[in-house]
Amino acid sequence: MLSCLTTLRNFRTLLQLTVPLLLFLPLPVAVQTKASYCGFIVLLMAVYWCTEVIPLAVTSLLPILLFPMFGIMSSQDVCKEYLQDTSVFFLGGLMVATAIEHWNLHKRIALRALLLVGVKPAFLMLGFMGVTAFLSMWISNTASTTMMVPIAQAVLHQLSNSKEEAENTEKSHSSANDIDLETKCSSVDVGVTDVYPSPTPASLHHGSVDDMALAEISKAPEENMNLSVITTEPKDKPGKMKMYKCLTLCVCYAASIGGTATLTGTPANLILKGQINQIYPDNDEVINFATWFGFSFPNMLIILFLCWIRLQILFLGMNFRELWGWGIPVSSKEKRAHGVIEKEYIQLGPMTFAEKAVLTLFCLLVILWFTREPGFIPGWGTVLFDKNGTTYVSDATVAVLIAVLMFMIPSRKPNFTPGNQNQESSKENLTVMNLPINKLLNWVTVQRKLPWNVVLLLGGGFALAKGCEVSGLSQQLGEQLLPLQKIPHWAIAVTLCLAIAIFTECTSNVATATLFLPILASMATSIQMNPLYVLIPATLSTSFAFMLPVATPPNAIVFSYGHLKVSDMARAGFLLNLIGVATVTLAINTWGRLMFNLDTFPTWANVTRK
């Protein structure tokens, strides 16, 4: 028996490749229609995406190979789907995020915010969660988690050790290198490769597409903030280990929750935008940066607050007076913990010209995104560029504009003073003038940090959706789902959200969104339901992966530090999954119903009449 299992293990990859192929092959053989051919390809890609027997991005290339072979679409038409407006929007946003990470601006923002909230247990948690969620709105979930966890470990070390131990540790590591997360974080989110000490190979891929960042983290974990801080166990384990678990979990959960607030926060959100634009081309851009933020940001705040309360009760108890520090003086341990954060902030030095320039461009980017088409008034895009009902400018245009400016603006403040104006400064000016003038962003950094595999994932999803439409598979699926008309719409939405939240625990959120959204769009069209009523909650539910270490790269990162057990994460994450689904259901049935007019079936969704 053991020898048989060993043989199967040796041929596991071959079996994972061939068994789905042989299992689904009768479908196109028995029913020789374009719809059945496309169904075979969808099922095959779904299994490959779930098992990751080959890389996710490679699976995404299968439509280019199989659609022409089965006569569904020509190669030229399939390849056009791989770089749409949504993909360019994603690339431009990630280039800006790469510049933020490259100049350590995200670290400065994080440390400054932590100094403001203080180190009382509850507020320390709130500070870490708020900062991580905010950063995850703009940079990858992996990068924000990778930066925040070592800082949390250092603070926890000061809170858990005695004064003598803390002083000895500080002295023994006074010569250690400071945190340099710029070289260990890559901007990705979205699902993608090796983890810290590395839990398991599978855990590197079951997330929002952040593997490349994790690969860089694993190269030099010992450089991430004094290693002893990472591995030191607190002395009074029963009480302090709960604080370790609580604070590390709040970081990874906040990273996943924060990514839901913006379109660029996670690729699943961009997949929704791309699928809507493709399936419903006359939707008048119902989903853009401003409308998505208006709906998702309040929802994110509610989930984040409930997560904060839930983790406090689960790990720290219900003594809110002690946790929140009401009437309790600051202890020496808390002062030392505050000192750790303050020291890291001071070591950053004054804000450089490059940081100021990146911050200015980032703020300009957000303002332009919000005001291009705010919805309640004509935006600058409509007033200045759109003519005769044609939209010429999109969110991708703005993202590319800011990214291009970052490749042009120098990272040093231009010096227009002649170098020999005075003898005292001539040597200094000459030295500065001889230094190479770098830009805010360079192609080497972009090439190294950008998750190019995610672009292929997005394109593969768009190609798959187009193939389903062209082959007639979408229409057939919609007809099979007509009996759902008798079920209340809210019940359909809740059931789908629960199913997707479970499914995404073991599958990349990008793959989950790619597989489910076209099917749900067909269902909504067939039963005359506003597609946004199911597509938006379903997309948000792909980010509710809180129960398993392999569910997302942030989960895997915090689990790799050794403070957590799988049971800890499952116990905390199960209720958070339910909280997430309940909150999304509340949001879509309250302000979401008003924002998107969900009580009516829009004319742009009636694609069957065309």
Brief characterization of the structure:
Helix content is 66%, strand content 0%. It has helices spanning 2-10, 12-24, 26-30, 34-51, 56-59, 62-69, 75-80, 85-102, 105-117, 121-136, 141-160, 163-172, 211-219, 227-231, 237-258, 267-279, 289-316, 320-324, 332-347, 353-372, 380-384, 395-408, 423-434, 443-449, 452-471, 473-480, 489-503, 509-526, 532-541, 553-559, 566-588, 591-596. Helix 8 runs parallel beside helix 22 (395-408), helix 17 crosses helix 31 and helix 25 (452-471) runs parallel beside helix 28 (509-526).
Amino- and carboxy-terminal Cα gap? 59 Å
Helix coverage percent of residues?
A: 55-70%
Q: Please tell me how large the radius of gyration is.
A: 25 Å
The percentage of residues in β strands lies in under 5%
How would a textbook summarize the main sheet? none
Molecular shape: globular
Overall residue-averaged pLDDT value: 80
- The class by helix and strand makeup works out as mainly alpha
Summed up, the helix count is 32
The number of strands is: 0
Which regions are unreliable across 5 or more consecutive residues at pLDDT < 50? Answer: 162-167, 169-236, 419-434
